[in-house]
Amino acid sequence: ATPNPWWANAVVYQIYPRSFQDTNGDGFGDLKGITSRLDYLADLGVDVLWLSPVYKSPQDDNGYDISDYQDIDPLFGTLDDMDELLAEAHKRGLKIVMDLVVNHTSDEHAWFEASKNKDDEHADWYWWRPARPGKTPGEPGAEPNEWGSYFGGSAWEYCPERGEYYLHQFSKKQPDLNWENPAVRRAVYDMMNWWLDRGIDGFRMDVITLISKRTDAAGRLPGEIDSELADLPVGEEGYSNPNPFCADGPRQDEFLAEMRREVFEGRDGFLTVGEAPGITPERNEHITNPANKELDMLFLFDHMGEGEGRSKWDLVPFRVPWLRGTLANQQAAVKDAGWASLFFCNHDQPRVVSRWGDDTTEEARVRSAKAFGLLLHMHRGTPYVYQGEELGMTNAHFKTLDQYEDLESINAFRQRVEEAKIQSAESMMASLELISRDNARTPMQWDASKYAGFTAPDAATEPWLTVNPNCASINAAGEFDDPDSVYSFYKRLIALRHENPVVSAGSWTLVDADDEHAYTFVRELDGERLLTLVNLSGRTIDVPAESAAMVDALADGIEPAVVIANYDDAAVAASLARHELAPWQAVVIRL
Ligand code: TEU
Ligand code: CA
């Protein structure tokens, strides 16, 4: 087999710069703050840092609305600070991957300003459409179709200067770029080359699977009035989801292959990972199969409950068979070619220890944080650690709406509680407490001081988002030297991948595929076999039959060789001898 590319046994750490480390006391994280924490990241053992956007932006969607791709927003620093971060990271063997947000720009980008003029060369750089026939432009109901935005309301915003509507799948300050226009693609590729020539090591590509929209011969978007797709299913908020027409569109592979040729041909040592709403495991195999020269890997969302047809705010109870089923499909699709990214946490998702684990007691929080960490890192693929996940940081547990900052959460409350009256305020506050994106965005907890060391205790301004008060007991300073901390456990998981090819390159085979609480699988390479057993419940359970038989086949007189576990060896040996797994017990044994 061809040797694995470098990223096949790498671990990526995602930094949300706004919440990572503030060094100038303005309450926002900044680039100098990241540079000041590189030794911590090098010690953790990660290989790559992915930075969420730090480009010039009005910050409507916290930087995912870019107004200048080739400059740094003063909130985070300057291009010189970026160059210093690159140099300091590279000195430590750390690669830097930046966030590429090119499905849309900010409405304050010069391209969009110019596009408002129909005679400008940029007129066709966005998706402009006239009002619905017979309707007064700008009036409710005059939008070109019923598509809804991810952030509530219509996906169409009226622009009086141009007298037409523009498409925005996200906020109205994030107009969708028209990728059908070769001039748009050229400008994007030139910008990407500019950054790679500056020394960055690749890109995480924001909603890159939404850039190709389905249009009819006349270039009309599906669902536009008088087109054959006008009858759109409309949801409870009064809008339909554009995903069916914008996700994984007809030119998806063509655009990704063109980008690969125009930007990455001839370069090496880079990483490309695409954020891929609406992509199936089978399509993931096609896009990440090296033979197709598109992307190295993708973030899929089926295991995160996205695209279940219902709203993300309709909470469903966690069930092991469902999580195992989706991850098993992802693993099966790429067992021969293609690759998987492995994540439970990021800046859009709640903290996994609060969402699916148990953060109500210290013991349950530590055990379940380690259980989900071990489960993820023992799969085949490239793991992503989101800032604070390695500490077992929890959700914010905000109790009032004014504590939230995220426009997705605030708009959803307004639309579902006050306008469409789909949820009660109490029910929506419970949904936000479990799944709002702000849960992942509270400042990184470095120590037990007032603002967790994120900003100085006497800083001129408060952090932009409330620091979780549990920083008093959950912080890097308290975990760094503690061998039993979540931090130390993540450090061992990362080292395990670097030291054992069976973990990065070994095959993945599910065991006990129908157990309600235990998630078990085997990794194998050249005869070396590791069995992973994880109890994803807070109760003591029986080891499922197939796994028990494997453990028994070992135990003739010898203790199972424990590779890593979230209980001490004696406890592991005792529970396995009884064919039991203690609450949240996770263990890898060598068969
Ligand atoms: O997220 C895309 C996306 O689909 C998110 O809206 C996410 O799925 C949802 O919020 C979780 O339910 C990317 C970025 O990661 C996100 O931060 C941006 O807000 C979004 O694109 C627009 O750029
Ligand atoms: Ca700052």
TrEMBL record:
SUPFAM superfamilies membership: (Trans)glycosidases, Glycosyl hydrolase domain
Keywords annotated in UniProt: Glycosidase, Hydrolase
Domain Glycosyl hydrolase family 13 catalytic: 14-441
A Pfam family matched in the record: Alpha-amylase
One GO biological process term: oligosaccharide catabolic process
InterPro entries: GH (IPR017853), GH13_cat_dom (IPR006047), Glyco_hydro_b (IPR013780), O16G_dom_2 (IPR045857)
Domain of life: Bacteria
MF term (GO), any: alpha-amylase activity
Family statement: Belongs to the glycosyl hydrolase 13 family.
PANTHER family: ALPHA-AMYLASE FAMILY MEMBER, NEUTRAL AND BASIC AMINO ACID TRANSPORT PROTEIN RBAT
Protein name: Alpha-amylase
Organism of derivation: Bifidobacterium samirii
